[in-house]
Amino acid sequence: MKKKLYILLDNKPGVLSRIIGIFSQRGYNIEKIIVKPFKKNRKISEALIKLKNSKNITNQIKKKLLGLINISHVKIIKKK
């Protein structure tokens, strides 16, 4: 099942590489990633990551991402 993760993260060096590291350590594949500054606050960026994983794996990734200091919000978006 294809899903997307919407993530709000601090706009600081190294934060995106830590996010990617969570995926690579577990052997999960990212199909597409888009990162841009958040419109309301330039100190925050928003990322949209497209995945093709099971619900269980996606929930595990969400928990790991929320454990990172520089991540403030993670939302799973199911693709219809």
What labels describe this entry?
80 residues; alpha+beta; Alpha-Beta Plaits; four-stranded antiparallel sheet; 2 helices; 4 strands; 30% helix; 42% strand
What is this structure, in a nutshell?
The chain is α+β, with helices and mostly antiparallel strands and 80 residues long.
CATH level-3 fold name: Alpha-Beta Plaits
Strand order of the largest sheet: 2-3-1-4
What overall geometry do the principal axes of the alpha carbons give?
globular
**CATH homologous superfamily grouping:** ACT domain
Find the count of extended strands (DSSP E, 2+ residues): 4
Number of separate domains: 1
Q: Cα distance, first to last residue?
A: 9 Å
**What portion of the residues fall into strands of 2 or more residues?**
35-45%
Helix count? 2
Query: Structural class given helices, strands, pairing?
Result: alpha+beta
Q: Can you name the CATH architecture?
A: 2-Layer Sandwich
Helical residue percent band: 25-40%
The CATH C-level class name:
Alpha Beta
Rg computed from alpha carbons, rounded to a whole number of angstroms? 12 Å
Residue windows where pLDDT falls under 50 for at least 5 positions: none
Mean pLDDT: 90
Described by strand count, sense and barrel closure, the largest sheet is: 4 strands, antiparallel
User: N-to-C SSE series?
Assistant: EHEEHE
Outline the structure in words.
This protein has 80 residues and is an alpha+beta fold. The protein has a single domain, classed as ACT domain (Alpha-Beta Plaits), CATH 3.30.70.260. Helices cover 30% and strands 42% of the residues. It is built from two helices and four strands. It has a four-stranded antiparallel sheet, covered by helices on one side. A hairpin with a 6-residue loop joins strand 2 and strand 3. It is globular and about 35 Å long. The mean pLDDT is 90.
